[in-house]
Queue: 3 jobs
Job 1
Amino acid sequence: MPVVEIMKALTDSLYAMKLFHEIIVYIINMTFDYLLVRSKKYAKIHFFESVI
């Protein structure tokens, strides 16, 4: 196997890993945002209930 092909395979796998990593980070961020928004809404509702 020529060195060029090995290098190409490495860069391809690195690119795929980078893409995969970005997708995972994006999903985690979305999940955290969603949970944060939900808990904030929940906290706000409880806060208003306690005020009223």
Job 2
Amino acid sequence: MIDSKQYAVLAYAGTLPFIACAILPWIGMPVVAGIGSCAYIAAAYGVAIVSFMAGIHWGTFLYQADSLPVNLLLTSNAITVAVWLAFILTPVAVSIAVIAAAFVLLLAVDFRLARAGLLTPDYLRTRRNVTLIVLAMLMLTIGSP
């Protein structure tokens, strides 16, 4: 049985780096010494988290391919490659915007999976709430001083 409290705690804890990267520039700390700008850190972390979320879809494809409403193998790879390319090829603000779009797309896929009965309402609610927090923090990061 899946412990919904455990995945919810981990999901919300995963927002903390985004929150820190969004707030620090507004209180006069736009750079973390030895690492880089908060925007760069948020983008790098965003690539990692998008890849992780896409990996969940990849795993779902491996075990549920016949009952899926969408080809998760293709969507997970396309989203991961898109955010990686944006991270290495575009200015950080563009990269963050692409990462934000990826979070929206991943959530849209999860809504389709939930409609197909493959995700629990509790998991989907957690995903939605966490995604909204992440999107807000990414927008604050893009607009930071």
Job 3
Amino acid sequence: MLYSEEIHILKFSISFIERTYRDRFEQILTKPRIRKKFRESLSHFQHFINSNMRKIPGSFQELDEIYKALISVRDVPNEVYIISESSKWDRKFLRLDEGINEIVSSGYSSIISILPGELAYYEGEGLGERYILSKLS
């Protein structure tokens, strides 16, 4: 394991979650009840820092295009961490290609943390609700 679950969550929180919601978000590490509530609300989550989100345009919403966009970043690790409303994928460490394959168009809202605090992917519930979250220039 390249990065721990704790590193993924804490760095994701600092970079991509609104300051007023960070403490609550970070509790998903230690409080199962809060994690469950968070996962249930993930499809309508409204506490991302919008300036760090890039909506994936409709013409690039295919699996291959999303994967290409994510691996185009220098030094992307092959292992990712997933937070998902699906218990099948939540708290899993997977290869990047496997994570993208399973999450894109799965019908489950999910976050894939790729480079902790620097690069992530969010898939919401709505059609075309796909975002790259990035602190990279």
